[in-house]
């Protein structure tokens, strides 16, 4: 019997959401879920199609990238997940996809401007696009450095990962996270929507202005501020 | 036993159409249905995913925004619905979504030009885009002022809400309405179609002319005029 | 017992294909099927949603627009169908939709250029876009004149309706036809595909050249020429 | 009893994936699977809709285009398949579709630039677009020359068909291949995704740079290089 049955289940359910939400085809994408008290996370095995996955196939890895339990090799992006879990204490789940519109912005190497309240309902900044790595970094410990690249991007832009739970990696695609794996996947879907809306907005009006600051704050705070009145909590 | 069982049912059915018609993801969007004789309307509870909704979860609110029946908090947009019901006597249902193409036009802050008969089959004007609110209004009673903003836009443009049953809120997204909740949702879907068609039209021909007046009248009148011959009534 | 049971069935099946092929929403669109020997055609009743249609609801109309059998009012576009059946002897079925990409080209008032073999597999010309009617014609017998407008467009461009089984009506949308109702619907779907492909082609390369004449002939003839070798016939 | 039961089954399953993956409508597209030891391949019969196909309908053809078994005429593109099997020894399956975005690039007569890691996960080059044939070639043995055209394109660009398993035929559409028929279909789907992502990338940033060489190598090698660590093999 596995000691990580529940963790694997959470991770499995979140992974299976990706094809249902049209965020992946084939083996693209991966989601992980962390158990902070046990110092491990569960992650999708590498290169397995979603329709063949079982909950027990999830691989258990510690925060130093060592496989703790599992017959299969973990996702090739495992070190990026581990790096982010080590760097950001509150993060409970991480998702990575190659969803079409988010990838297009990443390939265009542009931040996604905050154009409307759909965006401000989730956070108050443009979705950052981290620049592509230098050649040395790529030839080094690539997936580790991918995590570093995300961290550097957030530091340089002075962003808080507790608020902005999504990033584009230039030329690659999106990573998203949240308090748990389900929230990370939710953020992947929201990001894809924001990416599509922003793309269309610029096609209709190349000079579309960013959302004004008062409206950014209003929408973010009514959902996430101390006097939030969206949803059933608080 | 609720006194509003039928009203809740109407409201629930209309809300459940939104994900079926691909107009919302997650908890985005909300529909309400009014009972004029009882001075109340039913509306979706805030932040509840559609797949978890039950008819009995609909919240009953009076036209002064007071909850009359319901265990849950009503949609955060409730005051906008109440404002429009107070202002416009014939309206029986209201829908609000973040559907992709309508939002893109709202974020581009442009009216949707009447380019064809699909549009004129429904009304005879460009779909109006209300400008974003000033900072003072945003920091005041925001959802109330959102209703005011819609009203002002219709007054300024001299539009009749009985004919034009849809509006874009600049930087936000669409509100639609109709004689009942089902018609409001129908208008949300039609608006999304018009928004997509108009977007594509401008991509193919940036100088595409608006539909000529005679054709606007012809198509609108054959469906809605006194000698209408579309459909099975009249 | 109806004398037109089979005709109604053919017409009904073809109509029901439209929502399945994503060519219509709600009550948009209509298909008819003609029985030349009986001098009548069956057509969708006006304004009825597809999910409520039954085969027996199809309305039987003669070529002078008189209802021969049926409890409901026929499609408001009936006179256009009748006109085309009177004008073009070999046509067995006609379809009209408001499919998104075809409408966008109609609203842009542009012919769809023949850019590739997908197009040439079906016919050898740009898909013609008939110009919008003059104001007098619109105020006259509108649906009759819509047929006239299509006929004039084919005459002016010297097109053969036996080869080119599709047209765009400027500012309105597509009409398609064929040897029977099923083929007319097939052409509606093909047209929507061609419209989308041509739109994307021009986005990628605004100077994309039309398909060269030798390739147009080759692809058309291998499917439709006297030495055709596509398919299982001939 | 057929001697080719398994081969037909492989070919049939691969063909049926095309409509499931939204890569074809109606009778568009065809997949073949080769049995090198028997000197034959199985291919879809010409002009048969997917929903009417049975495994036993697959036509068995030898590498000189002669039908060996089968009641139906093979795909009109059979000679192109045979040509490629003769030219490229390791290829086990070939797929041809008219998928929307890939066709748009083919009609635009442009290579698909390698903009991101989704692309580099599969190969290290732009997806080549072979130029349209000259008029003489078209009027000759067209489908045979289509194969020649692909071969010439790969030779001129110095591409290895073992690495780059996809090509666009100018004005026509994509051909893809792989170690077996399933892999060929996989490549058709991947190509359609790459085509859509690249289209959107250029819309967002017309000056989007190609992926840098170090990242191309990194992503390709971690999946396909001698020290590959993606997936469960090696």
TrEMBL record, chains A, B, C, D:
InterPro entries: Aldolase_class_II_sugar_metab, Aldolase_II/adducin_N, Aldolase_II/adducin_N_sf. It is an enzyme of class 5 (isomerase). Belongs to the aldolase class II family. AraD/FucA subfamily. Its cofactor is Zn(2+). PANTHER family: FUCULOSE PHOSPHATE ALDOLASE, L-RIBULOSE-5-PHOSPHATE 4-EPIMERASE SGBE. It catalyses: L-ribulose 5-phosphate = D-xylulose 5-phosphate. Its EC number is 5.1.3.4. This is L-ribulose-5-phosphate 4-epimerase. Residues 9-199 form the Class II aldolase/adducin N-terminal domain. Keywords: Isomerase, Metal-binding, Zinc. Pfam families: Aldolase_II.
């Amino acid at each position: 019997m596995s000691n990580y049955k529940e963790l694997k289940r959470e991770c499995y359910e979140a992974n299976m959401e990706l094809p249902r939400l049209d965020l992946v085809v084939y083996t693209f994408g991966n989601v992980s879920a962390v158990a902070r008290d046990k110092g491990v996370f569960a992650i999708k095995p590498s290169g397995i199609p979603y329709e063949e996955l079982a909950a027990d196939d999830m691989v258990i890895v510690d925060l130093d990238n060592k496989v703790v339990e599992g017959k299969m090799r973990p996702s090739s992006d495992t070190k990026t997940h581990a790096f982010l879990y080590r760097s950001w204490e509150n993060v409970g789940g991480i998702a990575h996809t190659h969803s079409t519109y988010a990838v297009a912005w990443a390939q265009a190497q542009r931040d996604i401007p905050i154009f409307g309240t759909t965006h401000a309902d989730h956070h108050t900044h443009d979705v950052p696009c981290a620049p592509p790595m230098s050649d040395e970094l790529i030839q080094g410990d690539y997936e580790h450095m991918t995590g570093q690249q995300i961290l550097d991007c957030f530091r340089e832009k002075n962003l808080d990962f507790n608020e902005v739970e999504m990033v584009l990696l230039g030329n690659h695609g999106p990573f998203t996270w949240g308090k748990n794996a389900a929230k990370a996947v939710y953020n992947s879907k929201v990001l894809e929507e924001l990416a599509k809306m922003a793309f269309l907005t610029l096609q209709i009006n190349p000079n579309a202005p960013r959302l004004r600051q008062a409206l950014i704050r209003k929408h973010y705070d009514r959902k996430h501020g101390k006097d939030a009145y969206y949803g059933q909590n608080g």
